Prior knowledge:
- The complex is a heterodimer of chains A (163) and B (201).
- Chain A is an all-alpha fold.
- Chain A is 69% helix and 0% strand.
- Chain A folds into two domains: 8-55, no CATH class; 66-157, no CATH class.
- Chain B has two domains: 1-110, Orthogonal Bundle (Rna Polymerase Sigma Factor, Chain: A), CATH 1.10.1740.10; 127-201, Arc Repressor Mutant, subunit A, CATH 1.10.10.10.
- In chain B, helix 3 packs across helix 5 and helix 5 packs across helix 9.
- The longest helix of chain B is centred in the N-terminal third of the chain and has 23 residues, at 31-53.
- At the A-B interface, helix 1, helix 3, helix 4 and helix 8 of A face helix 3, helix 4, helix 7 and helix 10 of B.
Amino acid sequence: xxxxxxxxxxxxxxxxxxxxxxxxxxxxxxxxxxxxxxxxxxxxxxxxxxxxxxxxxxxxxxxxxxxxxxxxxxxxxxxxxxxxxxxxxxxxxxxxxxxxxxxxxxxxxxxxxxxxxxxxxxxxxxxxxxxxxxxxxxxxxxxxxxxxxxxxxxxxxxxxxxx
Amino acid sequence: xxxxxxxxxxxxxxxxxxxxxxxxxxxxxxxxxxxxxxxxxxxxxxxxxxxxxxxxxxxxxxxxxxxxxxxxxxxxxxxxxxxxxxxxxxxxxxxxxxxxxxxxxxxxxxxxxxxxxxxxxxxxxxxxxxxxxxxxxxxxxxxxxxxxxxxxxxxxxxxxxxxxxxxxxxxxxxxxxxxxxxxxxxxxxxxxxxxxxxxxx
Lengths: 163, 201
C-alpha cells in the first residue's frame, strides 16, 4: 500500500484506524505498513493517545428538571388565543366540536346578514366570524394537544435523573 | 407517511431515518413523538454543547433553545437530511453564536480553576486514592484546555466526529461547509491535539 502520510487522501484511513473505526481487513493491511513506516507509526500512536485522552472527558448528567423547564418554555410559546381556549379544553377535545361551533357561528352570522336590519346588527356578527376562523381554532387545538401529550411524557419521566 | 419519507430521502441517498419519521409525526401534531425525540437526544445535545462551551448552565440553556427551535420549526420541517444532522446543525449554530457573543466568556476562568461541572469519575471499581484523583483531574484539565484552545469550527468538528460518531458528510452539513473542508478541519484539529496530548499515551 501507499504510505498514508505521503498521500493526503489516505490520512482519513489512518485517522479511522487510530479511532478503531477501520474494518479488520483494512486494519491488518495498515498494520503491515506501520511495521515498516516510522512516520505513520508515530502518527497512529499519537492519534490513538489523543483518542484515549478524549475518552476520559465525560460530560455531566443533564439536570433532572430539563424537560419541565422546556415544557414551560414551549407552553410560553402558546398564543393568547390558546390561553383563552384552555378553560374549555375538556369540552373541545374533539376537533370536530369547535370546527362545528365555528361553522354554526358563521351560519348564524350569515343569517343575521340576510336579515333586513340596521348595520348595528351586522357589525358584531362580522367581528365574530373573523375571531373564530376554523383554521385558527384547529391550529390552537393542535398546539394544546401537543403540549398535553408532551406534558404527559414529561410527567411520566419526572423523578428519574438524566444521564 | 413512511412512503413519503422514503421518497423524499431516496433522492439525497440518505438511509431511512426513523427520527425523521418521528419529526413528521410531530409536524402532524403528535406531541408524544416530540417527547421521544427529546428523550433520545437530550443527553447528546447537552453533552455536545457542554463540550463546546464548557459551562453546564450555558450548555443546558442552549440545549433548551435547540429543542425549542425544533418544536417551532415542526410545521415547516422537511426530511432533506438525517434528523441528527439537522439537530446538530441547530446546536452548532447556537453554540458558535454563544461563543462569539461571549456568553461563555468565563470559560477560560473555569478551565484555570476548579471544574464543578465535571462529574467525579471512578478511576477503578474501588474508591480512587487522592493521588489517583489528582492525576485524573490534571489529565482532564489538560484535555479540556486543549479542546477549548481549538478554533470554534475545528472544535465542533472534532466533538461531532469523536463523541457523536458523525460521518464527514453529516459534519459538513452541520457546519455548512464541504466534506473536504471538514476533513481539513479535522486533520488540523487532531494535529494540534496530538501536539498537546500525545504525551499522555
